UniProtKB/TrEMBL annotation:
Domain IclR-ED per the UniProt entry, residue ranges: 67-251
Annotated signal peptide: 1-21
Keyword Signal in annotation: yes
SUPFAM superfamilies xref list: GAF domain-like, Winged helix' DNA-binding domain
The species this protein was found in: Streptomyces antnestii
Coiled-coil stretches: none
Alphabetically ordered keywords of this record: DNA-binding, Signal, Transcription, Transcription regulation
InterPro entries attached to this UniProt entry: GAF-like_dom_sf, HTH_MetabolicPath_Reg, Tscrpt_reg_IclR_C, Tscrpt_reg_IclR_N, WH-like_DNA-bd_sf, WH_DNA-bd_sf
Protein's name in the database: IclR family transcriptional regulator
Transcription keyword on record: yes
PANTHER family associated with the record: HELIX-TURN-HELIX TRANSCRIPTIONAL REGULATOR, ICLR FAMILY, HTH-TYPE TRANSCRIPTIONAL REGULATOR RV1719
Domain HTH iclR-type: 4-66
Pfam families for the chain: HTH_IclR, IclR_C
GO biological process, alphabetically ordered: negative regulation of DNA-templated transcription
Length: 266
């Protein structure tokens, strides 16, 4: 399918503005998005007329407008990500016989947005809307392992950034760094008793079209009921599901094939 150049340019501008801390000059947009200045101004004028961009004349800068906010609000209302992920998670529960969930990173925490409970399995702490420390959860570790290392350092700059639930888990930036190296090596993350005593989890990251992690898919099970071989099988099923959700949202299913994304940047 061919790309419409003007549409691609408009989307590039909107994505760029969304990533900035505040309004920016048109010259910066032109430079960073790699568009001719005349094209940049024409597109900004059109976006401003439609409310997607606002021009601040005194500052000579451009920022996102109300229409862009309405788009984001519509996404939240429709919850397409959760809708796309629910069926793969339900199938994951069927294949493993254990509870599965989907969590997204929010600062140093993960927020659980889907929980699929296996028949006969007890409810867990990972109910929808619950927040937990990202560095203690398998879902959070799966996402953190795929982030640029500079971003992880910004989130966890020193020991004061770490909290414990059961007196276990990484308690320093170096300990977290070593743990995430192991997650990247294996291709999935684990936790055992660090969230709830007696329960363990395995997780893998869902990636967007740039191989950026947008969520973690995890399965949680009673630790004493699952041996090493079965845990490995569950991990494979989790990775398979994470790849399927990535595919459904138009993301990367094999990050090793994306230049520059095999290992998070320093």
């Amino acid at each position: 399918m061919s790309t419409v150049p003007a549409a691609a340019q408009v989307l590039a501008i909107l994505r760029y503005l969304a990533a900035q801390a505040g309004p920016v000059p048109a010259a910066a947009i032109s430079r960073d998005v790699q568009l001719p200045r005349s094209t940049t101004y024409h597109l900004l004028d059109t976006l401003a007329r439609e409310g997607f961009v606002v021009h601040l004349p005194e500052e000579r800068r451009y920022g996102l407008g109300v229409s862009a906010f309405e788009l984001g609000s519509g996404y939240s209302r429709q919850a397409p990500f959760q809708r796309l992920a629910r069926v793969p998670l339900a199938k994951l529960v069927d294949r493993t016989g254990h509870n599965a969930h989907l969590a997204v990173l929010h600062g140093r925490e993960v927020i659980y947005v889907i929980e699929e409970r296996a028949p006969g399995r007890a409810p867990l702490v990972t109910e929808v809307g619950v927040r937990l420390p990202a560095h203690l959860t398998a879902s959070g570790r799966a996402v953190l392992a795929r982030l640029p290392q500079a971003q992880v350092r910004a989130l966890f700059p020193d020991a004061s950034a770490f909290v414990m639930r059961n007196e276990s888990g990484p308690g320093s930036p170096s300990a977290l760094r070593n743990l995430l190296v192991e997650v990247r090596r294996r291709g999935y993350s684990t936790e055992d008793g660090e969230v709830t005593p007696g329960f363990a989890s395995v997780a893998a990251a869902v990636l967007d079209h740039t191989a950026h992690p947008i969520a973690g898919v995890a399965v949680t099970f009673p630790a004493e009921d699952v041996g090493p071989e079965e845990q490995q099988e569950i991990a494979q099923q989790v990775a398979r599901t994470a790849a399927e959700v990535s595919r459904r949202v138009g993301g990367v299913t094999d990050p090793a094939r994306v230049p520059g994304h095999g290992t998070p940047t320093r």
